Amino acid sequence: MAHQSLFNDAIKRLDKAGILAKVDPEVLLRLRHPKAIMQVSIPVRMDDGTLRIFEGYRVQHDNTRGPTKGGIRYHPDVSLDEVKALAFWMTCKCAVAGIPYGGAKGGIVVNPKELSHLELERLSRGFIGRMADFIGPDIDIPAPDVYTNAMIMGWMMNEYSTIKRTNCPAVITGKPIALGGSLGRDDATGRGAYYCIKELEKRRQWNPANITVAVQGFGNAGQHVARLLHADGYQIVALSDSRGGIYRKEGFDIPSLIKFKNESRQLKAIYCEGSVCEMVESQTLTNSELLELDVEVLIPAAMENQITKENVNNIKAPVIVEVANGPITSQADAVLADKKTLIIPDILANAGGVTVSYFEWVQNRQGYYWTVQEVQQRQETIMSREFNAVYNLLEEHKVDMRTAAYTHALKRIGDAIAAGGTHTYFSQES
Fold it and tell me: Which structural domains are found in the chain, ordered by start?
């Protein structure tokens, strides 16, 4: 059977939302076709003197509402189809958050764990060398994504500035603080999802102590949403990384797990008091088993296509918060909608990252920097406002939350496209 296109699966979500948003058909037509696709080959001289060629991509999906914005991922499974889907989601995500950006995404086919630090720097600078004519603070602003980080963004910003003969921090977000990065960027994605969960808590009148949570993916975003929820009394009973997961009915001490994970790169059931850590009893489980746990809130925070038609009937959590991009396929989505599972979709749940990236871009352009309290306060204002706007659409139209989020995004994108004229305008007689 042919592999299903992630991009084609992603844009299936447009049709239903387009009807509810009452947008011109030309809006949907435009969104089905990325504005520009760049594919490059990047020669890198390896430490042993050999030459390797790496394939890289950048997709600018739509810039109707502003310059395009999106991360760059380093992964051996990067493909053009995946990057197109991620760029489409970024267009919708920026519109949901009300940020004046369109969507873009980039990626390089590489396993960064196999490269030395010097090879990684050469690759990163080489990618920007190839892309310098297509990006810029008013054109397309990259950011970190899977297996890229602040230091890599710093190299990229420096390379662009060297090529353009000017200091240009606003070309890249997610940079080190010392190079113009924003305070609050480190936990922005997880914090944005946390703010969404807190708004749902108000609407459902939850007592956090009674709410069990499973987090698939204990990377940056997964760690921070788990940390913030744990601090509020939620019971984080299961966690996993790429090697597998752990489960404990009584819940885990999340700060201890984060400390051990970041020091040892291992996820283990640990309780720490000061510098003394000891193992606590827990069960081991696979990533697949974690998804099927009977918990109140499931948070997929790893990769795409984790919940599919093969395992969707085993999913028990009544609430799913998509911190990862595209963790649920459209086929599985339909099944979960029939089961009345509430899904806080990725284009809303993980929009905290691009929101604070936007703040970084604004600060770079102003040359004036905000405190972490100002960043978090502004982020909470946006995430809470947009969560409630989407939830209100859910209640008004009696639809699932993903459809409500796409409807919210399409209204904003549709208004911007219609402002330049569509067939409805141009077909009118003068």
Answer: 33-179 (3.40.50.10860), 182-430 (3.40.50.720)
